[in-house]
Amino acid sequence: MLDLIARPFRQRLAAFVAVRPVRVDLPHGLVSFSFDDVAASAARQGASILDRFGMSATFYVSGAREGTQCDGRAQHTAADIAALLATGHEIGCHTWAHAETPRLDDAARAADHARNGEWLRERTGNAADSFAWPYGRIGPAAKRFYGERFASCRGVQPGLNVGRIDLAHLRAVGIERRNFDAARIGRWIEAARRRRGWLILFGHEVETDPSPWGCTPEALTEVATLVRDSGLEVVTVREGVKRVKARRWWPTTPGDTLVRAAPPHTGISA
Ligand SMILES: [Zn+2]
Asked: Rounded to the nearest whole angstrom, what is the distance from the C-alpha of residue 219 to the centroid of ligand 1?
């Protein structure tokens, strides 16, 4: 009961306190596609749709799900990870066990992190740069833990990454059956173009009969078409972070070097 009360407070507090603040000052808007967990259909159908548009996405993978069924849906295999890498997509981290990270202590977070790190290095040869919060749940201690270990952490709070943002809690807009509306996503894309912001889209499985959190191949194709027609550049999340950091005007973490000294851009209007 205490946790039921504490959770929304913890979520709001963590969302309010920036761990990795940075100001977005891009020459033009950016769009990223991402998929969480990752279902086999996202790694196959989803990736092949984006490949046809020449777009690369970020796949946030939970290693424990490899080769399993989750809610009756086949999850990615080792071959899927290899194929995604070979076609230029990014593999990110979504914890090993798809853990609700604010409920873990630092020792449990470290154990899960080490296990997924080992698995990722086996599959990709590298540690991941990008992290996505399982269930979108964040907390102050968890945010510090993952914020220190990844270049970015993406949540599920809808929004455009523009102005002052927190790399430890990037905003993202879902491509989800439960509320899919191409016109609404089109408005987010237009806002990214107009405000020179970074729009991150996220999804789960890509199937003809998806769960409320997944989408159909037609819906993903429709969104990719809108993005292509907008003329906005599509980048992986890892690349998006590089673009943002290369243009920042103050150092964000100790040890970071100041790349560009200039006053903040103030001409962005809603
Ligand atoms: Zn997830």
From this structure: 20
Q: pLDDT, tens digit, for every residue of 151-178?
A: 999 999 999 999 999 999 999 999 999 9
C-alpha 36 – ligand 1 centre gap (Å): 5
Q: Domains in the chain, start-ordered, CATH in brackets?
A: 18-246 (3.20.20.370)
Distance CA 156, CA 201 (A): 9
**pTM (two decimals):** 0.89
Q: What residues are neighbours of ligand 1 (ion), with CB under 5 Å?
A: 36-37, 134
Residue 233 Cα to ligand 1 midpoint, Å, equals: 26
Mean pLDDT of 260-268: 34
How many Å lie between the centroid of ligand 1 and the Cα of residue 175? 14
Contacts of 94 (CB under 8 A, 6+ apart): 36, 37, 38, 60, 61, 62, 131, 132, 134
